[in-house]
Amino acid sequence: xxxxxxxxxxxxxxxxxxxxxxxxxxxxxxxxxxxxxxxxxxxxxxxxxxxxxxxxxxxxxxxxxxxxxxxxxxxxxxxxxxxxxxxxxxxxxxxxxxxxxxxxxxxxxxxxxxxxxxxxxxxxxxxxxxxxxxxxxxxxxxxxxxxxxxxxxxxxxxxxxxxxxxxxxxxxxxxxxxxxxxxxxxxxxxxxxxxxxxxxxxxxxxxxxxxxxxxxxxxxxxxxxxxxxxxxxxxxxxxxxxxxxxxxxxxxxxxxxxxxxxxxxxxxxxxxxxxxxxxxxxxxxxxxxxxxxxxxxxxxxxxxxxxxxxxxxxxxxxxxxxxxxxxxxxxxxxxxxxxxxxxxxxxxxxxxxxxxxxxxxxxxxxxxxxxxxx
Amino acid sequence: xxxxxxxxxxxxxxxxxxxxxxxxxxxxxxxxxxxxxxxxxxxxxxxxxxxxxxxxxxxxxxxxxxxxxxxxxxxxxxxxxxxxxxxxxxxxxxxxxxxxxxxxxxxxxxxxxxxxxxxxxxxxxxxxxxxxxxxxxxxxxxxxxxxxxxxxxxxxxxxxxxxxxxxxxxxxxxxxxxxxxxxxxxxxxxxxxxxxxxxxxxxxxxxxxxxxxxxxxxxxxxxxxxxxxxxxxxxxxxxxxxxxxxxxxxxxxxxxxxxxxxxxxxxxxxxxxxxxxxxxxxxxxxxxxxxxxxxxxxxxxxxxxxxxxxxxxxxxxxxxxxxxxxxxxxxxxxxxxxxxxxxxxxxxxxxxxxxxxx
Lengths: 374, 358
Fold this sequence. Notes:
The structure holds 2 protein chains of 2 kinds.
Chain A lengths: L6 H10 L17 E10 L2 E10 L7 E8 L3 E6 L5 E5 L5 E5 L9 E4 L4 E9 L5 E8 L4 E8 L5 E10 L1 E7 L3 E6 L4 E2 L5 E2 L8 E6 L5 E5 L6 E8 L6 E7 L4 H5 L4 E4 L4 E4 L5 H5 L5 E5 L2 E6 L4 E5 L5 E6 L6 E4 L2 E5 L3 E4 L7 E4 L7 E9 L4
Antiparallel strand pairs in A: 1-2, 1-30, 2-3, 4-5, 5-6, 6-7, 8-9, 9-10, 10-11, 12-13, 13-16, 14-15, 16-17, 18-19, 19-20, 20-21, 22-23, 23-24, 24-25, 26-27, 27-28, 28-29
Chain B lengths: L1 H16 L4 H4 L7 H36 L5 H23 L5 H4 L2 H5 L6 H10 L3 H5 L8 H11 L7 H28 L9 H34 L15 H16 L17 H7 L3 H24 L5 H25 L13
Helix pairs in contact in B: 3-4, 3-10, 3-11, 4-9, 4-12, 7-10, 9-10, 11-12, 11-15, 12-14, 13-14, 14-15
């Protein structure tokens, strides 16, 4: 009989694996004078995956330590225990990459989709780094799947339905379950970008058995036009924060829509920002993180980070132009913006790090993750 | 420095030798959104939809003739069916190069150009022998459309009188039904009074859709059709380019680029479009707004694609890897210009770059 541990025990065990970053905010980098982040960005029409490094302290620039040009946009990333970086393509979701930055002799390893499935932009690793879980879409039917993959070969060993469409981010729920966000937005993948029949939107989060893929629960919000997309656990592992993206037809409704939902293991609830602030957030949460200070939802269209207490009370909008990627290191939030990044972004006196020459004109994609190689 | 001066002199010589374009001699009129949409729907998409409809209607009897041919006439009948397929595919590729309006609403690409086609599903469908539109709705998209018919005419050429030929005939009819529906839908769309007060919101959406789909079409040609198959082959196998089975890859790329190019720049020697009476290529739309430097950049970017695409056609697939890669780079540069300068100038939000839905 498999040993079952609860979520808190699992998070504690994961935190002890100091070298293993499993998902945004899920582990800690080695203590030191700098931080290293695996990120994806677009620059002058070219797409890159790379390692960004920055020394702590205000004014220290964010530098590109290593980078790899990729053929199309990369979205979600993960880091394996050996330091290799995984990146997945998104719109179009044609490839999965495993890259060993700094190890020049090791050629990047690519897995190409054959046209029947497309990656949805997120990948999650098992604690031992041997298995990968990717969110994918069946091009013909639009149904979403979890691809279970061998981390060494990247080949698929199993696949499970997510019981929805437009599956996006996925996280561990203890060691035995996965939580998957079904974004629920119907699209026409042959066009690359067109949403269709939004009145049929069906977003949910599902809990799947991590060994069999069996459905253990499914939850939906009342407002069907809110897409559940990005996920992060509270530091105690008791509550899941979900960043939302509104798809209402009416612009005013869309712009005033909440960007955060909380899931306590039993029920989902939305957390609204107070008026008139809510109007300015524009109903778009691009990434999700949590620290002891509270929840953070990056809102690039509002040029700020929406901050909430862990109980869901509004704490304010931390300004950073075009902010999107978020990561937590040692309890402090690191947020990436257009020309600069913020250290301790939830604090009243956040430290500003201008982007160095290698990042001039670059637009960071939605996510970055800690990379423990400094 | 001497070399630079010489190059400049050569360029000047060419510039002075080339006849001035109509827009260089005469003032370019101001084009508004209504003129742009009248041009796109009435003078670009509709004639292409009509071509596609004509081609698809001719394809049906050509496949029927193959199925009914005596054994001795099998080869010429197969050749005729193949020629009809090629004409239909070229017309479709031109129309689908920029997928606007009905092509998106009907999900026509998915319906009749789904790739990869799945031979196992085709075999299953042959065994099922669906007859007519209703029965065909139950056939999965990977077993029908132009790629499935390509498989039936080239990869596993159907024999006259065989169940497979009967199925090929049904596939051709299904393509023809879609072509007819598109032709009807584009006829309706071409009659839209884009300037009517109650159409203003729709007009704004339609021009946004057009610019987005133009960018999407450039990217589809660059990535899905050229660069991705090349990279995915990883140098170990033949790239899985579109229309490989029929040997029509180069023709398909040329048709798609022709479709894209026609909405991008005004062909040399063409008269300046009269507002509401002709297609207004994006280059001319910009010139009408006084954005000549951006229009020049767009023209130059399109010229580069022309040149690299010509190299691909000359080199062929087997020896054309470098030319294909160069074309992909030139298409990427055109897309970047479109996203970074043209779309903002037209106040159009590009779906890919605002991270919408991710």
